[in-house]
């Protein structure tokens, strides 16, 4: 099946107001830049966005925060975005902060068809409020629900028109799990190749999980926090 789209705007064409989205990436590494830009152009609002972080003020998910298109963020880290902080403190944005390991596992469980699991992370904190707690082998664990989304938006290095994906190094981060947890998975790639050009042993996400794929024109690949050392 040819799953190729001509561009990001065509790929996200049916994302409507109120949709729940998963967006791959860690910091600014491996984020779906083209899809985010298309969402800004489309102007969809009241989005619930599931992502490890909220980007920075003028890049990544920060662009959707700036245009007030996000209603709720489900994330594990949000410390690099001043606009996020302002909207949170002003009560303009709903936020569900989730421990990073719990967030990753909730997404993984959804992709595996497992509805819930027990973890010790968060026991005795605000995170545990309203959640079931059980004791196993003398230790308390709280129940966390699997986390799915209407759409998963991810970015890979290479892909073919069947949707098979290959990532480079740490860019796979949350994306490989999100691809399995989204009802509709949209992948943008730096290089779109013909079937047979990818080594089957190197494929990180099989095409069965990907519904649409497109090649973006260019990527900024911005560095979130640059650290330098002066030497004499």
Automatic annotation (TrEMBL):
Gene3D superfamilies attached to this UniProt entry: Glutaconate Coenzyme A-transferase
Pfam family, one: CoA_trans
Keyword vocabulary terms for this entry: Transferase
Alphabetical list of NCBIfam families matching this protein: pcaI_scoA_fam (TIGR02429)
Organism (species): Flavihumibacter fluminis
GO MF entries: transferase activity
Name of this protein: CoA transferase subunit A
């Amino acid at each position: 099946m040819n799953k190729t789209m001509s561009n990001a705007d065509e790929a996200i064409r049916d994302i409507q107001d109120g949709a729940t989205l998963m967006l791959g990436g860690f910091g600014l590494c491996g984020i779906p830049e083209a899809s985010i830009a298309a969402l800004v152009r489309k102007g969809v609002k009241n989005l619930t966005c599931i992502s490890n972080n909220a980007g920075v003020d003028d890049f990544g998910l920060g662009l959707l925060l700036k245009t007030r298109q996000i209603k709720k963020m489900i994330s594990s880290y949000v410390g690099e975005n001043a606009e996020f902080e302002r909207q949170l403190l002003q009560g303009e944005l709903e936020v569900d902060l989730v421990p990073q390991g719990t967030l990753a596992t909730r997404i993984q469980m959804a992709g595996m068809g497992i509805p819930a699991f027990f973890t010790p992370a968060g026991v005795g904190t605000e995170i545990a409020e309203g959640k079931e707690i059980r004791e196993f082998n003398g230790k308390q664990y709280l129940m966390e629900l699997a986390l799915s989304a209407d759409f998963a938006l991810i970015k890979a290095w290479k892909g073919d028109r069947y949707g098979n994906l290959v990532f480079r190094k740490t860019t796979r981060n949350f994306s490989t799990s999100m691809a399995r947890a989204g009802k509709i998975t949209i992948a943008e790639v730096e290089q779109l190749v013909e079937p047979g050009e990818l080594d089957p042993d190197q494929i990180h996400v099989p095409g069965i999980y990907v519904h649409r794929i497109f090649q973006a024109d260019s990527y900024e690949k911005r560095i979130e926090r640059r650290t330098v050392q002066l030497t004499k």
